[in-house]
Amino acid sequence: MKHLLIDISAHGFGHVAQTSAVLNALDCSGIRLTIRSLTPESVLRRRIHQPFSLIPYQQDNGMVMHDALRVDVAASMRWYEDFHASYPQRKAQAAHELEALKPDLLFANVPYLSLDAAAEVGVPAVAMCSLNWADVFQAYCAELPGAGKIRAEILYAYAQADVFLQPAPSMAMHSALNGQPIAPIAALGRRNRGLLREKARLHDDARCVLVALGGIGVDYPLANWPCLPGVYWIFADAALAGAAAARADFLAESLFGLSYVDLLASSDALITKTGYGTQTEAVVNQIPTLCILRHDWPEEPNLPVWHAHHGEVLFVDWREMQVGAFGEKIMALLETQWGKPVVPPTGAAEAAAELQQRLTTDAR
Hints:
Strand order of the largest sheet: 3-2-1-4-5-6-7
């Protein structure tokens, strides 16, 4: 059997969303999958429908976050300084681990260390992501002492990939990467709005808004959250702790027993932040969206512009969320009739075909 090794960043769940869509589109007859990531196994197995072995493994940290919306620049720089202080030794160790696993192909979204190591030991490698850590690091840390050398090492590592698949709408990336644009990658969910109302024992004209800011925690301003007639808010279970969460219109995700993408597709509207996975899934599943802007995040303005062109979306700042001044926008979205053409998420099939071809030919 061919052995496909998949390295997935655990910086939020967007990397898992992209990678799982590709793996689910792959014909795995005759292919053995090994995944290396610190993403919780339960999340991986909910998303990835192919059998795989899991190795808990960290080789990147993305950016250190204060919460889902704010980057901790100082802590991020300290992490990169420490990581790159012994980078040659880390690369040698990563190369040794690759040789022990004997993969026929490496697929990375989007750690860079193993891409660098793969070139050392002659393992073909494909990178894929809508962002890369070299350019994200540059956006936040470029003016800090030593940042130039660190960025150069990250760029060099990424440039070792045979190809860097960039699903639309990707951020602008450095020309040193062997970039290859592909169509959007997003999962299609099964829509069942009646089931949401049934599970929560809601009346037929009740409307459900999914609140999903990704896999990195945030303190929701629940005390100031608007109470709107006939509107119910669905949160991740962990968000609904404490007295402020004890409202009849606050519902936990676990109440419904649905996969995340089916829950999204069955909701009447969505609240999210600038981020590839949920925004593209909102578009392909045709869910009106209130998007919290992250003005310093390097995927802006690409993602908001793309979302506005292809979907029904309104934008809000976090300070408006904090004081609960977004009720009118949610009500407007709930009355929105979808007027945009369907966006086919064919990027997963394109990426799967790329992997399949390389596994078949063993060609660099």
